[in-house]
Design brief:
The chain is globular, with a radius of gyration of 20 Å. It is built from 3 helices and 14 strands. It is mainly beta. The strands form 2 sheets. Strands 1, 2, 3, 4, 5, 6, 7 and 8 form an 8-stranded mixed β-sheet that branches.
């Protein structure tokens, strides 16, 4: 909602109240957010859950673990050029969020954020998420004025390393094209890496894995880019793979595109 305990700040809308105060800029990775004054280091009383975020909340702090960190992607078009990267975040209430950094924010935060580590985040802009790319309700964008500082081991101990909501391979053909799903399966076959050129003339590398799960059904799942080239995962040894946020495809029947976030031989 837009008000109440976790929603839009009440009163003068200047960050008053339990969840209004941002993480101060005195932290290791500090920076001013709209010239807000430094108050004190974030504590548990300042942190709101990811589930409480909405586009109307402007002053907030979340504590979350980086479960995946993408490579830096660069673009160039008639409007200019730039760079971006994204991280997926998970908090101690199993709330999930996709956060994206653009241009100068890439240079500032990419070296500082580590996959598997937890941080306090504030000073981001919340918007409604594109359902084609994530199951989360909202995305957040951070810029160079945002504030991010690491959590101690004690502060992050309540946050899981990952959460899944697995869909059986048997049910994937019933999903719409580009539906975001979590899948757990065994790699039955590895095609090996292969190079191709897209319709736009871009050189690509892909690797197709045949997955089978406890339903007895199979699906072709495709890796792209550097992860498709890598041999460190031991695909030919028939490992188990847990895929977070894969996307269904109607190409050549039902298939699956593997996201940047997957775990080989999970516990």
């Amino acid at each position: 909602g837009q008000g109440g305990q976790y929603g839009q700040p009440q009163g003068n809308n200047q960050g008053d109240g339990q969840y209004g105060r941002p993480v101060p800029t005195a932290g290791q990775y500090g920076g001013a957010y709209n010239s807000a004054p430094v108050v004190r280091d974030a504590s548990s009383s300042d942190v709101c859950p990811i589930s409480a975020l909405n586009p109307y909340a402007t002053k907030w702090t979340i504590k979350a673990r980086v479960t995946v960190k993408t490579d830096i992607r660069k673009w160039a078009n008639e409007r200019g050029e730039g760079q971006l990267f994204s991280v997926d975040l998970l908090d101690d209430q199993k709330g999930e969020l996709r956060a994206t950094f653009f241009k100068d924010a890439v240079d500032k935060f990419y070296p500082l954020l580590e996959e598997g580590k937890a941080y306090f985040f504030s000073g981001g802009k919340v918007k409604i998420a594109n359902a084609k790319f994530t199951k989360c309700d909202f995305d957040v964008t951070f810029d160079t004025n945002s504030v991010i500082r690491p959590c101690s081991d004690e502060e992050s101990s309540s946050i899981s390393s990952q959460v899944y909501n697995f869909t059986s391979i048997a049910y994937l053909p019933q999903q719409q094209d580009r539906t975001v799903v979590d899948v757990l399966g065994i790699v039955k076959h590895d095609s090996g890496p292969s190079d191709l050129t897209s319709k736009a003339g871009k050189d690509l590398t892909k690797r197709t894995l045949t997955l089978i799960d406890s339903s007895g059904h199979e699906i072709a799942a495709t890796l792209w880019g550097e992860k498709a080239k890598s041999e460190v995962y031991g695909w030919q040894e028939n490992p188990i793979i847990a895929i977070k946020g894969g996307r269904t495809s109607e190409f050549q029947g039902c298939s699956l595109n593997i996201s940047d976030q997957f775990t080989v031989n999970p516990d």
